[in-house]
Amino acid sequence: MDDLFFFDADCRVGSGPVIGIQPGVKELLAEMDHFGIDKAVVQHGSTGMLGAAQANLQIAEMLKEDTEERLTGIWYFLPTQCRELPEPDEFFRQMKENRIRLLALNPYEHQFIPHRISIGKIMDAAKERNIPIFLREFSGQWRDLYDFIERFPENIFIYCDRVGKWGHDRKIRPLLENYSRFYYGMSGYWVPEGIRDLADAYGADRLLYSSGFPYYIQGSGMTQLKFCGLNEKEIAAIAGKNLEKILSEVQL
Amino acid sequence: MSTPIWKQPGTLAEQFWKNGKLDFPVYDMHGHMGSHYAIHFYRHTPELMAEHLRKAGVKHLAFSHHHVIMGDMRNAAVAEICKRFPDLYRMYVGIVPAFPENIKEDLAMFDQWTPYAIGLKFLPDYYRIPVTDKRWEPALKFADERKLPILVHTWGSSQYDGGPVMLEVAQKYPNAKFFLGHSLYGNWEYAERLVKETNNNVWLELTAIPGERKNIEMLVEKVGSERILFGTDLPWFDEFQGIGGVLSADISDDDKRNILCRNAETILGKDW
Questions:
Q1: Which of A57, B24, B61, B272 has its CA 20 to 30 A from that of A138?
Q2: What is the CATH number of domain B25-268?
């Protein structure tokens, strides 16, 4: 238990006009060292305003600072019709080249409808290749989130919330119950021993340690998980093994 | 990778990581109990909360019952719950301005609820009644006369319990001990003013802040760790998350000990 492997599913790096000056890759790695986090998934913190294409370029460039390859990146996608990003096969090739293994979408700030006719092609390709879709931009948009997942029930989803301090069990549990490839990251989920209750109901293999860095600190979720009442094997799975397994099955 | 904080010998972080407890009592100064209309949390009963608190080494939880401050349960029933857990629970008498007769009766009963009743609880934002409104006055005067704590839910942007109105009442009632629940969240400038421009009768309470990166450090920098109290809103937030959040902050172990333990003992004594 002392040497738990932690893989943080939810970190952001990079600054922007709205979010101000935020930590970069070096600061994130230093903080991971400080708390004993082995690996992390990262995206650019200002993707909303940068736009998908530019944010993708920037995070790829930033990842080059991580010479030990502890970080895995997220790229954003758009409706394929506007041809702002390469066709899926080329897009995936570039992802592999740049150590990107997850996708995300921001239909709110990037102004599109996350429907089958707009993004079905890339969602289907992501499903075939086991590429997880990261869902934080849907934070608090529960009806939209439900509709979106219903349209693509066979994709792999990772949902990490950081908006608000109120527990979301009434909204999260139906998703965990109905979609077997829906994973829940615990950023901001502070319900007392709630991790144990979720694991008992849906399995520890459906939960992921995630911090919400740089807004949340990585350490508090580590102690919350370590003492949540699950056994060592389940805790180890949530701390890092589940995410490691999900990403190992990605085919780029 | 350098040595993580959880493995640095002799630190509080190492102690907690190893044992899930610290070698001193932790006092949680902001709790509740009972179910909540908008949130599912399983561990809201006295028994399940007690199990969680004891596991984390919390000596006392000072709480107000959800069903008092959001329903019509009476404080007398809460005192009965405390009596069942005399070593653990302490209560804030919930003050609900919509029920003025209850306030009179409950304040008259306060002494009979000793040692369980340690102060009062206000929730101005939820009721949309500014803390400066005359409906709070009987309770404010009562606390002022007796130098009692009042845990006030505060939020930086609120017109009901935000900075200006809280500063006004904290100055008007200089003997009451104001615990600013959530530390006037978001209005850190006023949080600092409340501590510095009053009669040493204001403390910042941390609920919802542990876990947020750099905010504890910022508050310690502004007012000093001696003016900060630990709280979790249990059953809203996990004790291990909250304590872990304080231990994760980039402040000294002495500061952490002040927040988690010493300050409550300074205000209420070692045997409260």
A1: A57
A2: 3.20.20.140
